[in-house]
């Protein structure tokens, strides 16, 4: 079984903000696969999808970003999923808007959601898809920026990035993550 986790914050005010790009990718996968996230466990919403490549769990932690590991860790234990079969999708300030960067391991890089995952999983070695949201304009606080919505111009770029994320996730179901990483990072 694979587990695909999109990071974000629950609730209307956070919908389609920069910080919720992970939720948006999970929503796009659920829509494409015709599987709404209707199950709830460990403070997260999820759907179990039976694909030709095997079973896949789509997950949105509802713990708020900074406590994402409190949902993901117990879910992985409950479903007995190995950390090698986890992919986490989240926003990255250090990449230009819409740019993807796939990695197999790494530090939290200041991202509190990833910090929580590392703490609860006991490792930094898990697959991730980072989606660029760019840095805030001069004078704007990072917290305000990541909780803001994309501009009209950015929405087009972000829509394309979400589509690429969906393709990367689908590719990772049948190919080693390293191959998918080399394709999308190249």
From TrEMBL:
It comes from Lysinibacillus xylanilyticus. HAMAP family: Pept_tRNA_hydro_bact. The active site is at residue 19. Its main location: cytoplasm. One of its GO terms (molecular function) is peptidyl-tRNA hydrolase activity. It is an enzyme of class 3 (hydrolase). The gene is pth. Belongs to the PTH family. It catalyses: an N-acyl-L-alpha-aminoacyl-tRNA + H2O = an N-acyl-L-amino acid + a tRNA + H(+). This is Peptidyl-tRNA hydrolase. The record marks 91 as: Stabilizes the basic form of H active site to accept a proton. PANTHER family: PEPTIDYL-TRNA HYDROLASE. It is found in: Cytoplasm. Monomer. The record marks 9 as: Discriminates between blocked and unblocked aminoacyl-tRNA. It holds the Pfam family Pept_tRNA_hydro. Its EC number is 3.1.1.29.
């Amino acid at each position: 079984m694979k587990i695909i986790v999109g990071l974000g914050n629950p609730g209307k005010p956070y919908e389609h903000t920069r910080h919720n790009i992970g939720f948006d990718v999970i929503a796009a996968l659920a829509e494409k696969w015709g599987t709404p996230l209707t199950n709830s466990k460990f403070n997260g919403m999820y759907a179990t999808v039976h694909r030709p490549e095997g079973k896949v769990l789509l997950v949105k932690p509802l713990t708020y970003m900074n406590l994402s590991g409190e949902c993901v860790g117990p879910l992985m234990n409950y479903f007995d999923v190995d950390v090698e079969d986890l992919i986490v999708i989240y926003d990255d300030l250090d990449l230009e808007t819409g740019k993807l960067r796939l990695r197999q391991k790494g530090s939290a890089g200041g991202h509190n959601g990833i910090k929580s995952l590392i703490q609860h999983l006991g490792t930094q070695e898990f697959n991730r898809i980072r989606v660029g949201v760019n840095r805030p304009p001069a004078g704007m606080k990072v917290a305000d920026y990541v909780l803001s919505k994309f501009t009209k111009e950015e929405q087009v770029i972000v829509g394309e990035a979400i589509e690429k994320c969906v393709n990367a996730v689908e590719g990772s179901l049948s190919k080693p993550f390293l191959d998918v990483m080399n394709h999308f990072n190249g």
